[in-house]
Amino acid sequence: MRVTTGRLHGVVAMDGPSGTGKSTVSRRLAAACDAAYLDTGAMYRAITLAVLRAGLDGTEAEAEKVAVAAVGDLESVTDPAAPAILLAGEDVEAEIRGAAVTGAVSAVSAMPAVRSALVERQRALIEKAVATRGGIVVEGRDIGSVVVPDAPLKVYLTASEEVRAARREAQDRKAGRLADHGAVLADVRRRDRLDSTRKTSPLHAAPDALVLDTDHLSVDDVLTELLRLVEDRGMVT
């Protein structure tokens, strides 16, 4: 695997649907380049948890108010060695990966006021990380197209539905959660449909993003390619 000893300068925008390996490679890229790391998907999951804890399922009009209010209770730790998402001071990383949040997050994420509030928060975190650390790797579904459209490197990871479902199953089992292939595959397809057809910031690759198919690539393979890209762009010194 290629290794860099340089420090990242600027923003790497990592987009793509679930199960493409964004989180793993983004964290490893940030660690390899001594950069900050931000998982924007965890932010959407955390406010979805707040909605569920309020006794709502994410489809009611009241859910949008609860979700927007919860943005003020979020804290994102951007250290790639120990990333965390806090909701009102509580570490909710494990809970936001459960089936309940996974089933409701697309609906909550589609709310315009929610996306507006979180994009503002994300931009502030990115600006702070660049100012204090020099660079940041940001992963999500609209980073290159909406959150940081002027990022010097935009990468869109993709993979087939079957491969992504298999990866999700492996993650669930590793975390001790039950995983049924048919159910996971159906959920992957459902989230793809919802994320790509929502009116506000639909999932798609930015026109200038580099699309990388990870079907037959290991995490090390993808990381090697990303390290090559940041070096070729002159983003590490």
TrEMBL record:
InterPro entries: Cytidylate_kin, Cytidylate_kinase_dom, P-loop_NTPase. It is found in: Cytoplasm. Its EC number is 2.7.4.25. ATP binds at residues 16-24. Keywords: ATP-binding, Cytoplasm, Kinase, Nucleotide-binding, Transferase. Its main location: cytoplasm. It comes from the Bacteria. GO terms for molecular function: kinase activity. It is an enzyme of class 2 (transferase). Residues 12-231 form the Cytidylate kinase domain. It catalyses: dCMP + ATP = dCDP + ADP; CMP + ATP = CDP + ADP. SUPFAM superfamilies: P-loop containing nucleoside triphosphate hydrolases (SSF52540). Belongs to the cytidylate kinase family. Type 1 subfamily. This is Cytidylate kinase. It comes from Pseudonocardia zijingensis. The gene is cmk.
